[in-house]
Amino acid sequence: MTTPVSYEVQDGIAVITIANPPVNALSQAVRAGLQEAVARLAADDSAIAGVITGAGRIFVGGADITEFGKTPQPPYLPDVINAIEDSAKPIAAALNGAAIGGGCEVGLGAHLRIASETARVSLPEVTLGLMPGAGGTQRLPRLAGVEAALDIITTARQVSAAEALSLGIVDAVVPAADLLSAAKDKVRAVAEGSVSRPEASGLRPRPVADAAIFEATRKKVRARNRGEVSHLAAIDAVEDATRMDRTEGLAAERKRFLDLMQTPQRAALIHAFFAERKAAQVKEIAGLTPPPYASTGVIGGGTMGAGIATAALLAGLPVTLIEREEAFAEKARATIARNLDGAVARGKLSAEQRDEILSLKLKTATTYEALTEADIIIEAVFESLEVKTDVFRTLDAIAKPGATLATNTSYLDVNAIAAVTSRPEDVIGLHFFSPAHVMRLLEIVVAEKTAPAHVARAFDLARKLGKTGVYSGICDGFIGNRLMMQYRLASDYTMMDGASPYEIDAALTDFGFAMGPFQVSDLAGIDIGYASRQRRAPTRPPEERVVTFADGLYHRGWLGQKTGRGFYIYDDQSPKGRPDPEILALLEEARKEAGITPRSFTAEEIQRRYMAAMINEAARVLEEGIARRASDIDTVLLTGYGFPRWRGGPLHYADTVGIASVLDDINRLSADDAYFWRPAPLLVRLAAEGKTFADLDAGEAA
Ligand code: NAI
C-alpha cells in the first residue's frame, strides 16, 4: 500500500512529505504515516533531524471532514503531534502553503516553523462548530500570547506569514524557492548544537493573562454568534492553558473537542459548509467551461449598482458604470470610493490599490455606447418593468454578441425582460443583496431561454466575487424574498394577534437570527414593504389575511432608520433603536379596529410560527423546482437572510426538529387561518413517508 507520507533522507535530514491531494488532509493514513515517520527518524542513524512539509501548494488543509461523525480511528492527531514535539531529534515544519486547523497544529508541535512567503496559518474549527482539538488551544497561546490566540481561534481568520512571524508563531519567513533548504539548514544547526534548541511550545510555561480578556472575548462572540457554543468552548480551552500543564490541558481540550463533535450545531455547520459547496453544481453546466470575460458594465449607480460595481472592482474586474446624468454618475463614483475606503480600513486593499482602481479600473458614463465592449452587463435601475425593459431594448441594440445581459431585479419577471430583446438566451437574473459588496449571496435566476453558457459564467462570476451563487427558477421574489414574504406575513399576524414587534424581534434574535423582522423592516425602509404590498395588492388572493399596520407608519413618514423612526426610535441616545410606546398604542387601536382580542405569546410560540411559515413556503419552492435542492434553500437563508448558521438553514432545522412536528404546528395553526396555514404537499408527503429533506437531496444525487 502506498502511504501518503514519504520519508527521504537528504544530507542527513529526514524530509517527511505529506502528499494527500487535494489539500493534504489529515486522514487516518496521513496520521499513521506521520507517526511512523517520526518513529523511523528516532531509529535512523543516517538522519540527525527532520523536516515536515506538504506536497503541492498547501501544507495541510486540516482534518479529513469525511471522517467527522464517525468513530475516530487511531492514531489520534494529538498523540501524533505529541510524538513530534517529544522527538529527541529536532523537527522543523516547512510551511509551504496554508496550514489550516490540524495542519496548523502539526506546525505548532514542531520545534521550528519556517514559512514560505505565501504560507498562511489559521485555526478555523469554530466555523464548523468545533475548536482546535490537537493542541492548538494550548500551544498557540504559549507561543503567541493569549490575546493573539483568542483572536485567531475565535475569528477563524487567516494569518499571513509576515504576521505569523511578528506574533512569534513562525521563526522565519523565506521565499518559496528557498523553503526546504532553509528549513534543513536551520534544523541542522539545532541538531548540531550551533543554535540552541527552542523549547517545545507545549512545554513552555503557562501563559499569563488577565481574566478580563476572556470575559471581553466571550462578550464579543456572544454578540456575533448568539446561541452558538463552539466559540465559547474554545475560549474556555485557551483559559485552561493559563492554568494547566501540557498533559492536563490537552486532555481537557480533547474532551471539549469530542463533546462538540457530538453536538447538533456541529452537524448543522458541516451541513452549511457542504450545502454552499454543492450550490455551484448545476446539471446544465456540468463540465461546461464558462466563456471568458474581461470587463463588466453596471447600469444604475444607486444603492445596488454602486455596491455591485464595488464588488467587481474588488475582484479585479474593470467596471463601466452608466447613470442617467453626470451628477448621478459622480455620486455613484463617490459611493464606490467610500466603499473602497472601507476595504482599505479593513486591510483588504492598500491606499495605492484603491487609487489605481478609481483612476484606471472604474469608468463612468451617461451613454450606453460605453458598454459596447462589456462582456457582462448588470442592470440595477429602478424596480419598474417599464424602465427595465427600456434599458434591455437599448442593451440589445448596443451590446456585443454573446455578452451576458443581467438584471438585478428583486421581483420582476426575468422572462418578460428577456422577451423585449432579440436575444433572450443571453438574459439572466443576477440578484445581489444589499450591501452588494459585503453580502455573500447571489441568486442566479435562470429564465426560460437563458443559455447554459451564461449560467456557467454567472456561477464563475459569483466565485470570482467571493460570493455564493445559488440557482433559482423564476417566481415572485425568487427563493429568498419569496420565503421572506411568508415569514414576514406570519410575524405581522403574530403582532396583530397580540405580540409586540419588540417581543417578536427579541424571540427571533434569541433563536439566533441576526435581526428580527421589524428591525429588518426599519433597516430596509418601511417604504420598501409598503411598495411591495402595493405591488401585490392586485394579485393578492382574496382569502389572504391582510395586515396594513405598517402602511400607517409609511403615511406618517416613519420610514425606519433613515428617518430616525419606524417600529423603533433611532437617535443619539439609541442609535440601534429603542421601543416606541406610541407604536404600542397604535397597535392597540389597530387591534381594536380589527376586532381582535390580543393574547400573549411565548418566545417559543413566536419562533415556531415563524419557522413553520418559512419551512412551509420552502417546501413549495422546492416542489415547484424554483430551488433544485433543499440545501440550496438553506444556503440562501444562511448567506442572505441572517439565518443562524449553527442551525444549518430552515430545512436542515426542519429535519432536526422533525418534519412531522412542523406539520403538526401548521395543522394546528390552520384552525385560525386555513388559507395561510395550508400545508405544502411536499411536507405532508415527507411526513407520511417518514423522510427528511436530506433524504430528498440524497435522492437527487442518486
Ligand atoms: P436606487 O434607487 O438606489 O438606484 C437606482 C439607480 O438607477 C439610480 O441611481 C438611478 O439614477 C439609476 N437609473 C434609473 N434609470 C436609469 C437608466 N435608465 N439608466 C441609468 N441609470 C438609471 O435603487 P436600488 O436600491 O439600487 O435598486 C436597484 C435595483 O436593484 C432594483 O431593481 C431593486 O429591486 C434591486 N435590488 C435592490 C435591493 C436593495 O436592497 N435595495 C436588493 C436587491 C435588488
Description:
- This protein is an alpha/beta fold and 702 residues long.
- The chain is 49% helix and 13% strand.
- The strands form 4 sheets. Strands 13-12-11-14-15-16-17-18 form an 8-stranded mixed sheet, sandwiched between helices. A 6-stranded mixed sheet has the order 1-2-3-5-7-10, sandwiched between helices. Strands 4-6-8-9 form a 4-stranded mixed sheet.
- Helix 5 (146-155) packs parallel to helix 8 and helix 11 (264-279) packs across helix 25.
- The longest helix has 21 residues, at 603-623.
- The relative contact order is 0.06.
- Bound molecules: 1,4-dihydronicotinamide adenine dinucleotide (NAI).
- Residues 299-305, 322-324, 328, 380-383, 387, 391, 408-410, 432-434 line the site of 1,4-dihydronicotinamide adenine dinucleotide.
Brief synopsis:
The protein is α/β, with parallel strands linked by helices. The chain has 29 helices and 20 strands.
Feature tags:
702 residues; alpha/beta; binds 1,4-dihydronicotinamide adenine dinucleotide; 20 strands; 29 helices; eight-stranded mixed β-sheet; single chain; six-stranded mixed β-sheet
Strand content: 5-15%
| Integer average pLDDT | 96
Q: How is the largest sheet built, in terms of strand order? A: 13-12-11-14-15-16-17-18
What structural class do helix, strand and pairing data support? alpha/beta
Which of globular, elongated, flat, extended, rod-shaped describes the shape?
A: globular
Total of DSSP H or I helical runs spanning 4+ residues: 29
For the termini, the CA-CA separation is 31 Å
**Radius of gyration, whole Å:** 28 Å
Small ligands present: 1,4-dihydronicotinamide adenine dinucleotide
* Number of beta strands: 20
Q: What summary fits the major beta sheet?
A: 8 strands, mixed
Bin the helical content: 40-55%
Low-confidence stretches at least 5 residues in length (pLDDT < 50)? none
